[in-house]
């Protein structure tokens, strides 16, 4: 009897808790069907052959219609919550639902094959500004990327991104399910683009951890669509690419704990808090912007990397032991344009050397520019590697900057500095540029296109079309990165005009391609697993 009785009590308790959970949960609306635009991308193997996978993209929950769970009335309009519907984080999570998205017509987001286009301003019944999308593995799971000892490659068209805009492709340590399993009150999950976090510990999110962010919500005074609440959402962030046609930066931002964590008020730190450095993440990062590092002729329209036409961006995550379980020791960048592999420009800043992100580069750069070293304080390159080791989610976005007009990317920043202040000059944009109101009206037709995403072992995802060796040399490359061909070198002569191209792989454990380099390059060992023509 006793056992039966207690079983009943237990069962009732379960039912009651299920009922409460459903009432308090962050809900999903059903007025607009959620159909994720498909996007193909490729995984490559060390031989250079790539296999394409069809995934899809999902727009972040913050861009979505938030309405009463059982009705059409907005819970949130412009930059304010409707407090006649609900007044606190728990009640708004149950009273309000996020709905499906019309990707092309409302948000200006379209895909075609391996290509994703994000338009800046889209005017339908309302005006939409920019977007933030995540790559999905299936309907309700973000694609997780393991990038240690791998390279990540994509093509980008920034030719229609002027001063003040930022087409960003990056990775964050979001939960693969958007947080549904850790926070059962989140009923929307990855399918509706929930669970965002980054190293600014953003407080402009409408929902975090299955709760609304209405407590303490203050509408922005210069953004009609945004505000900040008491809660923020922190996690590690690897900015592969933050760029427009004028400047670009690659920037790791570690956190004390890589995974998503909710923070409170100004203790969140980052852009949205009164003390930028109060939180557990590194809001500044260790950035490599070629212009800021002294080469003003490298990146831009008509420059070495000519931003008036598309190009390929390669980013390598090199570890100390050449394995995926090693410690991240270097983040290396190449570009490929018109078949030519172009290595990142080298620093010309006094006291800072190299063309890649290493611990030495970061500490020297912080010193040379007089910047606070929040990067090493929150784990440095090793901390970034810890986040990469846990797997990260791919984000692709287009945004303008209501906090600093993007001057930190493309102009002189801080604005009190001059172009001769060490580290202040970041690009050729005027210090008066980038005001969101101005770019939204004058550059409404701006857009970015990301395409041809590939991931694989170092050296597997890109190639050059011709050797840049001696005159008359038309040496074929040592490898192919197309999805249909696996080309290995057929070079059997010792001629110095054949061999692998500049920057191509030329050795390493398991390597069966060319082991000599086209003149005048030398096969240089990076680690046991990777040698490169330099
Ligand atoms: C900028 O980079 C290009 C390409 O690497 C190089 O040819 C040029 O010398 C560099 N300029 C400076 C000032 O370092």
UniProtKB/TrEMBL annotation:
PANTHER family, A to Z: 1,4-BETA-D-GLUCAN CELLOBIOHYDROLASE B (PTHR33753), GLYCOSIDE HYDROLASE FAMILY 7 PROTEIN (PTHR33753:SF2)
Region (Disordered): 461-496
Matching InterPro entries: CBD, CBD_sf, ConA-like_dom_sf, Glyco_hydro_7, Glyco_hydro_7_sf
Signal peptide stretch: 1-25
Highest rank taxon of the organism: Eukaryota
Residue ranges annotated for the CBM1 domain, each copy included: 498-534
PROSITE patterns in the record: CBM1_1, CBM1_2
Top class in the EC scheme: hydrolase
One Pfam short name: Glyco_hydro_7
EC number: 3.2.1.-
Catalytic activity: Hydrolysis of (1->4)-beta-D-glucosidic linkages in cellulose and cellotetraose, releasing cellobiose from the non-reducing ends of the chains
An example molecular function term from Gene Ontology annotations: cellulose binding
Family per record: Belongs to the glycosyl hydrolase 7 (cellulase C) family.
Alphabetic keyword roster: Carbohydrate metabolism, Cellulose degradation, Disulfide bond, Glycoprotein, Glycosidase, Hydrolase, Polysaccharide degradation, Signal
Protein name (Swiss-Prot/TrEMBL): Glucanase
A GO-annotated cellular component: extracellular region
A GO BP annotation: cellulose catabolic process
